[in-house]
Write a structure and sequence with these properties.
The protein has 189 residues and is an all-alpha fold. It has 8 helices and no strands. The relative contact order is 0.15.
């Protein structure tokens, strides 16, 4: 089955752990875990192309949330333009549809993961969490249908951090945290 599928299964179990009431900790963990299922699915698919299996884990560490989200957003915009041209349905259209589903779902899942992990003011409902997980299940299905397609493989490569993005990050003004009190000084030891 594999790690990403186990994460997706775990997300579904956590969402239903307290189905009689909106247990926020379980619902938030379910949203976050569902995102990580898709995140790790894409990374494992990309690294599976690497000839040396013993180095795939190290290669997987190169992938990062930000560049993966940028690649997803860029792919969604590109494919939205494709659909605006109203192409005829056929094998190419089907591949594009499924790739759009994967990229769009990844971007949405990352947004909701951030909401679940950091927006403590948001109240999660079981029905919303289940809908979110169902979308990720659907993205898994979409991916399984197109995983060997050249455009899907190119999408995986596009998720790698690029020199161009790194240079853009370096040119931004550095944000330094404000000096704070040494946290150890307030410990009661």
């Amino acid at each position: 089955m594999g790690y990403p599928h186990e994460l997706l299964e775990l997300a579904q179990e956590m969402a239903n752990l307290h189905s009689d009431y909106a247990h926020q900790a379980s619902l938030r963990r379910a949203v976050s875990t569902a995102y990580y299922a898709l995140f790790h699915l894409l990374i494992s698919e990309a690294t599976a192309n690497w000839q040396r299996p013993e180095l795939r884990t190290i290669l997987g560490r190169v992938f990062d949330h930000g560049p993966m989200k940028q690649a997803a957003d860029k792919k969604v915009a590109e494919l939205n333009n494709y659909f605006k041209e109203k192409p005829p349905e056929g094998p190419e259209w089907t591949t594009v549809y499924h790739l759009h589903n994967v990229a769009y779902t990844f971007g949405q899942a990352q947004y909701y993961r951030t909401e679940a992990d950091y927006n403590t003011g948001r109240e999660w409902q079981l029905t919303d969490v289940q809908l979110h997980i169902d979308r990720i299940v659907d993205a898994f299905k979409s991916w399984s249908g197109i995983r060997e397609e050249p455009s899907a493989q190119a999408y995986l490569v596009s998720m790698l951090p690029s020199r161009e993005r790194k240079q853009d990050e370096r040119s931004r003004p550095e944000k330094r945290p404000a000096p704070t009190e040494d946290p150890k000084s307030s410990w009661n030891v």
